[in-house]
Specification:
Blueprint (H helix, E strand, L loop, with lengths): L4 H11 L6 H11 L6 E2 L1 H10 L6 H13 L4 E5 L3 E5 L7 E4 L4 E4 L25 E4 L3
Parallel strand pairs: 4-6
Antiparallel strand pairs: 1-3, 2-3, 4-5
Helix pairs in contact: 1-2, 3-4
Length: 138
């Protein structure tokens, strides 16, 4: 039996204990429905939902992406302090940011070495390190 985008989306939400509202189901199906990982902005997911026939406001897309992050389903990757991308791939890995197209893609992690992190302030611990490698045409 073939797994549908709706089924994948429903299972993804259930894995985090999120209530499957119509909007969450629709956005989850777009994000994980084909089994591939995605890097999206709220605006790109909003546009994708509109072309798929789903009526979801941009505010709902933002709120839903935040809920998915808080539930541990996605990571937010901030570029330039103002542009957020949301990544469905949850393992630690670096990213390429393509300055000409404003795209975020996974970068190979095999050659990356992070050494010498500063100690976290008292009472804190490092939760993760984001590596964004910016690319521009030579």
């Amino acid at each position: 039996m073939a797994v549908t985008a709706q089924t994948r989306g429903t299972e993804w939400l259930a894995s985090a204990g999120l209530r499957p509202t119509r909007q969450r189901l629709a956005l989850a199906a777009l994000l994980v429905g084909d089994g591939e990982n995605r890097h999206v902005t709220a605006e790109s997911l909003y546009a994708l939902s509109a072309t798929s026939g789903e009526k979801v406001s941009l505010a709902t897309v933002y709120n839903t992406l935040r809920a998915f992050c808080e539930a541990g389903l996605m990571n937010e990757v901030v570029v330039d302090g103002s542009k957020s991308y949301f990544d469905t791939r949850m393992d630690e890995h670096p990213h390429f940011y393509w300055e000409d197209s404003h795209a975020l893609t996974d970068a190979p992690a095999d050659a990356l070495r992070i050494e010498g992190l500063p100690d976290a302030p008292a009472g804190m611990q490092v939760s993760r390190v984001d590596v964004v490698i910016r690319l521009k045409r030579a």
